[in-house]
Every structure is written in structure tokens, then in C-alpha cells.
Amino acid sequence: MNIELEGVEKEFRIGGRTLPILRGIDLLIPEQSVVALVGPSGSGKTTLLGLMAGLDSPTRGRVLLGTTDLTGASEEERAAFRARHVGFVFQTFHLLPSLTARENVQVPLELHPDKPAGGAGGIRRRAEDLLARVGLGDRVDHYPAQLSGGERQRVALARAFSARPAILFADEPTGNLDRATGAGIVELLEELNREAKTTLVLVTHDMELASRAGRVYRMVDGTVQREGATTAAVGGAGEG
Ligand SMILES: Nc1ncnc2c1ncn2[C@@H]1O[C@H](COP(=O)(O)OP(=O)(O)OP(=O)(O)O)[C@@H](O)[C@H]1O
Ligand SMILES: [Mg+2]
Hints:
Strand order of the largest sheet: 6-7-8-3-9-10
Number of domains: 1
Number of strands: 10
Structural class: alpha/beta
CATH architecture: 3-Layer(aba) Sandwich
CATH superfamily: P-loop containing nucleotide triphosphate hydrolases
Bound molecules: adenosine-5'-triphosphate, magnesium ion
Shape: globular
Helix content: 25-40%
Distance between the termini: 14 Å
């Protein structure tokens, strides 16, 4: 599924002051592509990811996922759209503390309108299989508080993959992981992109991960600039 942003601006109001964070972003991310978003801390990467995923609304401008305009949609409509099509790995994971690792991974499958075959057993097996693939086959019954930081991150990744979303947004998916574990996560992301044709939008400081992306965008003064693009290609959103 492709992602299209038109004149997207985002301001926050804090103590009577208006803080402009995103200042007019036009972007077309083609379906099935892998895009990395880089930039300094506080430059608006997480804010932009949240807008693209329909977690929040822009102050001005439009966000389209496929042919669906999220901008005019209600909170409920956006939630229903996300449950069907979008996976999200939060920078701070957002696991549900009262659910085990396996139960956390099962949530998107249980909420999805097309459930896997085999009922509750099928859902359980799919969750356990995904946890095994992120190296947590022997941690399925642990609660988040009983997992290390990197293990929680891997549960969050397994959860984001579980319903095979058309678009996956991941905020620093390899940020807290050692090299080998991070490389395993990158492989899993690439497999999802290849097999489920998932569009990947990754925020990362990891240059190894960024180098695997087809396109790298850098946040500059509240806008995005394509890295390595020639002057002619900058702003040429229709290419590709
Ligand atoms: N809900 C909010 N209310 C007010 N200001 C906010 C809000 N969310 C983010 N900001 C501000 O917007 C700016 C961009 O935040 P954002 O989280 O998008 O940065 P980031 O690029 O993801 O940074 P990092 O690399 O540290 O995660 C920051 O200066 C932050 O303080
Ligand atoms: Mg961030």
C-alpha cells in the first residue's frame, strides 16, 4: 500500500505557545518500498511516523494510505483502518503489561477482521512461531516486566508483524539490540517486505539498516529531504 502526504504541517500548543514541528511535507512512498527516515533527536521523526500511521492528525495537509484519506476520518475509522492494514513498533514498545509476550503478539490477530485459520489454536501457534523467529521461543509466557529491554522490543516487533500488515512503521526497531540480534530483525523485516509485500517505513540511527532501504529521507527544518538524490530528483515525488 502506498503512502501520500500533501502539505502536511504539525504544530503543538504548549502553555499558550505554538510550536511548529513539521512545516509542509510532500511525500510519496510507493507500495512495497523500504524507506528509512533519519534526523537528529527532536527533529520530528516520531511525530511524522504517527501522522503517517493515522495515530494523530496533521494541523494542516492530507495523509492518504492507499486510497483512504485518513485526514477526514474519525478516530474510530482510523482505528479500524489501522487494525486491518497497519503495524506499528513504538520507540517505547507500548506492550500491555498485564499480558504475556504471547498474548501481546495475539492482540492484532484477535482484532483483525480476517483471523488465521484454526481458531484460538491457530492464533496461538502463529504468535508462538513469530516469537520463536525473534529468538524468544522460551519466553512466551513472560510478562513485559519479566523481559529485558531488547526482549520487549522483539515482542513489539513480533506483535507488529503478526497480522501481516500492508504497511509497517517502526521507530528505531534495532535501537536497543546488539549487532547479531539487530541483523536478525533486519532479515525478518526484509522477509516481510518480500513475502507479504509490506511497505516499510523505518526511523533509525542505524546506518547499516538505513543502507538497506531503497530511499533515505532526512528531517531538515521540519521538512524531509531525500538523501543521495540529485537536485533534479528532489521534490520529484512521482519517480519510481
Ligand atoms: N504531544 C506533544 N506536545 C508537545 N510537543 C511535542 C509533542 N510530541 C512531540 N513534541 C515535540 O516535538 C518535537 C519532535 O518530537 P519527536 O518525538 O517527533 O522527535 P524525534 O525526531 O522522534 O526525536 P528522537 O530521535 O529523540 O526520538 C520535540 O521537540 C518534542 O518535544
Ligand atoms: Mg522519536
